[in-house]
Amino acid sequence: MSLPIIDISPLHSANRNDWQPVIDQIDRACRELGFFYVVGHGIPQAQFDGIESMADTLFRLPETEKQRISIENSQNHRGWGRLSAEKLDPQGELDCKESFDMALDLSPYHSQVSRCPTLYGPNQYPNIAGFTQAMNQHYSLTLDVGLRILKAMAIALNEAEDFFTQHFNLPISVLRMLRYPSQTQATNGAGAHTDYGCITLLYQDASGGL
């Protein structure tokens, strides 16, 4: 099965008529396949290269350093996740991966944190020069791409353009980095699962996967 490659650059246009070919392609892909590749998103390759470098630096840290930002110590599920800590497929093996999760970085004293402390709050960051700024920048850029796609999806469903995006003033969207170590055929990278939330944007590196 080949997935469609959709250039979403027309979604930057102020003329909504320019959007329609992209909306039609997204609508067809979602109804027929559920997946599609995105190009023309506006995030430069240098940004992805920088984030990959940050991820490599993080996952190469000694485990004692990574434990300092363990997700197990975070009430709002942020930070480093150890190898084989998850099991996405209840019938399968433990997932052979480690992770780093971050999201909207809010002070513990923010009113939204007091209302829902398990979803909102501060991130945990490793002691890596430039890491915090780079990750928050990437979070913002990726969220912007997601919101543009959601607008197109809303219009495809004959809803108002902001049908979905109006609920993203304080998003709970998560940016996750994953490392899959070398493994045997008998182990899972990540078990079969369905993602939670609206849509998932997955950066495809040279290793392949989905």
Question: Can you offer a commentary on this structure?
Answer:
The protein has a three-stranded antiparallel sheet with strand order 3-4-5, covered by helices on one side. A two-stranded parallel sheet has the order 1-2. The protein is globular. Helices cover 30% and strands 9% of the residues. It has 210 residues and is of the alpha+beta class. The chain has five helices and five strands; from the N terminus they run βαβααββααβ.
In helices, the fraction of residues equals 25-40%
Determine Rg (CA atoms, Å). 18 Å
Assembly state (oligomeric)? single chain
Distance between the termini: 11 Å
Structural class: alpha+beta
Number of helices: 5
Count the beta strands: 5
What's a concise summary of this model?
By secondary structure, this protein is an alpha+beta fold. The chain has helices at 20-32, 45-59, 63-67, 111-115, 131-156; strands at 5-7, 37-39, 79-81, 98-102, 175-179.
SSE topology sketch:
Layout: E1 5-7, H1 20-32, E2 37-39, H2 45-59, H3 63-67, E3 79-81, E4 98-102, H4 111-115, H5 131-156, E5 175-179
Parallel strand pairs: 1-2
Antiparallel strand pairs: 3-4, 4-5
Key structural traits:
210 residues; alpha+beta; 3-stranded antiparallel beta sheet; two-stranded parallel sheet; 5 helices; 5 strands
